[in-house]
Amino acid sequence: MTTYCEVTGRKPTFGKAVSHSHRRTNRRFDPNLQRKRFWLPSEGRYVRLTVSTRGIKTIDVQGIEAVWARVQRERGAR
Fold this sequence. Notes:
GO terms for molecular function: structural constituent of ribosome. The chain is of the alpha+beta class. Helices cover 31% and strands 36% of the residues. It has helices spanning 53-62, 64-77; strands at 13-18, 24-29, 33-40, 45-52. The protein has a two-stranded antiparallel sheet. The chain has a two-stranded antiparallel sheet with strand order 3-4. β1 and β2 (24-29) form a beta hairpin. The chain starts with 12 loop residues before the first strand and ends with a helix. The mean pLDDT is 93.
């Protein structure tokens, strides 16, 4: 599974965990990623995307067709 959101591009960030004694250790802040199926009416099929919860909200607002077209363009550029 990818470790980034295919819609928003969110990736893990890194920082420090600070204990009560103020010792610092490395930690990783992962985005809330979900593997989700979306129905594409124009193509008559489902597509499966790894999206963050923010990406799901983006799809709700902009629509799956517009977001899918942008994802396809970005995949082609890679």
